[in-house]
Specification:
This protein is of the alpha/beta class. It folds into four domains: 140 residues, no CATH class; 205 residues, P-loop containing nucleotide triphosphate hydrolases (Rossmann fold, 3-Layer(aba) Sandwich), CATH 3.40.50.300; 71 residues, Orthogonal Bundle (Helicase, Ruva Protein, domain 3), CATH 1.10.8; 212 residues, Peptidase M41 (Methane Monooxygenase Hydroxylase, Chain G, domain 1), CATH 1.20.58. Helices cover 51% and strands 6% of the residues. It contains 28 helices and 13 strands.
């Protein structure tokens, strides 16, 4: 490598001097005419030569015996005008050639001759100049046509011009045939697109919809805002007379089943206006342009109905299938992955709603959250069916945006064409009272242009009903059936069903009714409702039995969850615990929040992690350091919460928001070029270390608590083995040593039970290590008829081959476990 410069290039100062770049001159700065290409000089001469050749060939065809020289002479004599035009074209090209080389010649013609004409005609306005120029063009074309027809009919151009109408009438049959075939070809395509553009909408005329606002339960806050829009729709002058405008678009967004569609139906029922329901897949089509035609057809129908009935309501369900351009629907959601919208579409309320930020910063943060801001990595596009061939992603959205806020042209042919041709101003279009309602559970997929004021003026979140709303919803659906639930039962039911929507509450009541009918009853009881809730939450249990040692292991696993939840999870209460095997679980402990809350604290998240880690800590504690694969889901949940605490919620050793740092990556390339790892990689390693430290700390705390409450864990495990399913109140009764609704927890506080439980667990541990069977039956207890306190006994009773309690009538489990006091 040379030290004087770049290898392969001459040293500086030894080569030829670089050519200085010269900008191309503008046409208006030229002193001569811009040179023409060869084709531009010769094209008209070639055209005239071809025309003369065709006429000469026609002369030879008409008289085959005529010599070529005579035919040429006759053609020159009769078609002299072609040669004259050719001579004029030659003179024009000579003029252009001189202008390209002589500045004086070019200046004389452009400024003195043509410039003078331009100055004189420039006194006319643009419209008159356009009309005069167009009339001259028509006269020129008419003269040229008369010359051509005269040449074809061997008459003078004047006679050919006079005979032109009769010539046209004679050729009319052939012209009509051509037009007919063209029309037939066009009408075929028009018919295809017409039938493809039909459908996808359902029209409900006034009084067809019976739903009213009183049928919408649990969404009173949103309902009041919607009612306000209806007042403006029915009495628009109330706003317009004061200089405002009537809101014409409402977006209802929120989780599925919260009543968005029902609310739109109630609007139609209350207003007595036509209601148009748009199928979410109506505008996704195979052919490009069909979606646009459907949008145009839909809004033509809306305008007609609005004029006839004084207003119309159109409802787009699942609007995200129509209102996105394919790039904003990134991320994963539903069954395909975890999706938590952030920023403006967050389901959990954020502090101040970004009101403390200035507008530019707030806009930047919002675009970052939606994945469209500068500097953010491109998000994976969601596949939109049909978008590649003109589906919902191409043209349809643009047509919708145009219809929602575009200029409304005057209606009718007479109004638009005839009145304008007579010099009269067309009548302006009427004010169409069209209320556009949309519903979606993916608002982040909607295009920003669709959500701007003037198109969608009001955006309301239809969230999960509050406890009061759930009580009202339960009352509404239970009023349609026979039931024995009291007001206290409804209050408790609403408490243990957080995040239940109107649809899930309706389904829960219906499932309870099915259970009652299955038992030969027509009245719903509290037991039916609780059983229906369990079936809907986790599905029906499988009709299988564990082997004895596995049943005990599953019971201990779930008992560790239950005891840990009862001791540290103060923000939750246990709803139910079971070891009945389901389709995707061996058992579970289901906690529920006892009150309506919208925030959660660090200590509460740590308690949640400890409850998740209790299974791992408990299995290692009770099975000599061994643990099963059943802790996989618990570890996944604990790690996920710990990651959010350390990287997103400011509840760890650092306070930086991990996602923002990972998205920026401004210095990653420079670090890679320097041979070091990227900052994102370093951040991931340190985050993983912090998560592991957090989990180890909480696992150690969970082990200490389980050691302290070892007897209570074995007591809850015993109750689960005996009953399979127990309620949260029974678990608390067992831990506290008092009587519960199903299980008398006082017996579990006796020394006799502690000794028997340890002995039984020792047998189970031995069977676990040796893959054998448990030789002793499950310890049972019952209440002596004459005793006030329950007494623990080891009854001499049979048990199933797998060590399960017997089902015969002599079994103590066939009698009450505690006396009613």
């Amino acid at each position: 490598m040379s030290s004087n410069g770049t290898p392969g290039l001459p040293p500086p100062g030894t080569g030829p001097a670089p050519t200085e770049y010269t900008s191309r001159i503008r046409d208006e700065d030229r002193t001569t005419r811009k040179p023409l290409s060869f084709w531009d000089r010769a094209k008209f001469l070639v055209m005239l030569g071809v025309a003369f050749g065709v006429l000469l060939w026609a002369e030879l065809v008409d008289n085959p015996i005529i010599p070529f020289e005579d035919a040429l002479r006759d053609t020159v004599r009769s078609k002299w005008w072609i040669l004259a035009l050719g001579g004029l074209e030659v003179l024009r090209q000579i003029h252009y050639l001189i202008s390209e080389h002589s500045a004086g010649w070019h200046r004389f013609w452009t400024q003195r001759v043509f410039g003078g004409v331009e100055r004189k005609t420039g006194r006319l306005n643009d419209w008159n100049r356009f009309r005069i120029a167009r009339a001259l063009k028509y006269l020129f074309l008419l003269a040229l046509l008369s010359i051509l027809v005269g040449a074809m009919t061997d008459t003078s151009p004047v006679i050919a011009l006079l005979e032109l109408p009769s010539t046209f009438v004679g050729a009319l049959p052939m012209i009509l045939q051509v037009v007919f075939f063209m029309f037939l070809a066009v009408i075929q395509f028009a018919a295809i697109f017409y039938f493809l553009s039909r459908g996808g909408t359902e029209v409900y005329f006034p009084d067809d919809v019976k739903t009213r606002f009183s049928d919408v339960w649990g969404q009173d806050a949103v309902l009041e805002r919607v009612k306000e829009n209806i007042i403006f729709l029915e009495n628009p002058e109330k706003v317009e007379a004061k200089g405002g405008y009537v809101p014409g678009g409402i977006l209802l967004w929120g989780p599925p089943g919260t009543g968005k569609t029902l609310m739109a139906e109630a609007v139609a029922g209350e207003t007595g206006r036509p209601y148009i329901f748009v199928d979410p897949g109506a505008f996704t089509n195979m052919f490009f342009g069909v979606g646009i035609l459907k949008v145009k057809s839909l809004f033509r129908k809306l305008r007609k109905l609005a004029v006839r009935y004084g207003g119309v309501i159109v409802f787009f369900d699942e609007a995200d299938s129509l209102g996105n351009r394919g790039q904003l629907a990134g991320g994963s959601g539903g069954p395909f992955g975890r999706f938590e919208p952030s920023g403006p579409w967050a389901t959990a309320p954020a502090c101040n709603g970004m009101s403390y930020l200035n507008p530019s910063t707030a806009s930047h943060v919002m675009h970052k959250a939606m994945g469209t801001g500068q500097g953010s990595p491109p998000r994976a596009n969601r596949f939109v069916m049909g978008a590649g061939m003109g589906g919902g992603g191409m043209g349809t959205l643009q047509a919708l945006l145009t219809e929602l806020s575009g200029l409304k042209k005057p209606r009718g042919f007479m109004n638009r064409v005839v009145r304008r041709s007579l010099g009269m101003r067309p009548k302006p279009p009427p004010k169409y009272r069209i209320l556009v309602m949309m519903a979606t559970n993916m608002p982040q997929a909607l295009d920003e242009a669709l959500l701007r004021p003037g198109r969608i003026d009001r955006i309301y979140r239809v969230g999960y009903p509050s406890k009061v709303g759930r009580i009202r919803t339960f009352e509404g659906y239970l009023a349609k059936v026979k039931h024995q639930l009291t007001a206290q039962d409804l209050d408790k039911l609403a408490t243990i069903t957080p995040y239940h929507t109107g649809a899930t509450i309706k389904d829960l009541v219906n499932e309870a009714l099915v259970l009652a009918i299955r038992d030969g009853r027509d009245v719903i009881t509290w037991r039916d409702v609780i059983k229906a809730k369990q079936l809907k939450a986790v599905g029906p249990p499988e009709d299988v039995e564990y082997i004895t040692r596995e049943r005990h292991a599953v019971a201990v696993h779930e008992a560790c969850h239950a005891v840990m939840a009862a001791k540290v999870q103060r923000h939750m209460i246990i709803d139910i615990a079971t070891i009945e095997k389901g389709q995707t679980f061996l058992g579970f402990v289901a906690p529920i929040p006892p009150e309506e809350r919208f925030t959660q604290w660090r200590t509460e998240f740590e308690a949640d992690i400890m409850v998740s880690l209790a299974s791992l800590a408990g299995e290692r504690l009770f099975f000599d350091g061994d643990n099963s694969s059943g802790v996989r889901g618990d570890l996944e949940n604990a790690t996920s919460v710990a990651a959010d605490m350390e990287g997103y919620w400011g509840m760890g050793s650092t306070i930086a928001f991990h996602d923002v740092i990972g998205r920026s990556g401004r210095s990653d390339d420079m670090r890679r070029q320097a041979g070091r790892g990227s900052e994102s990689d370093l951040l991931l390693r340190t985050l993983g270390q912090r998560i592991e430290r957090k989990l180890e700390e909480l696992l150690s705390s969970a082990e200490q608590i389980l050691r302290e409450y070892r007897t209570q864990v074995l007591a809850v495990a015993h109750a689960l083995e005996a009953h399979k399913t127990v309620t949260g109140e029974d678990i608390e009764a067992i831990i506290d040593g008092r009587a519960g609704p199903l299980v008398d927890g006082r017996v579990y506080a006796t020394p006799e039970f502690a000794a028997a439980a340890e002995a039984y667990h020792a047998q189970a541990l031995s069977a676990h290590k040796g893959h054998g069977i448990i030789d002793v039956p499950l310890p049972l207890f019952h209440t002596r008829p004459t005793a006030e306190e329950p007494v623990f006994v080891l009854p001499e009773t049979t048990h199933g081959g797998n060590g399960a309690p017997g089902d015969d009538e002599s079994s103590p489990w066939a009698r009450p476990t505690h006396t009613d006091e």
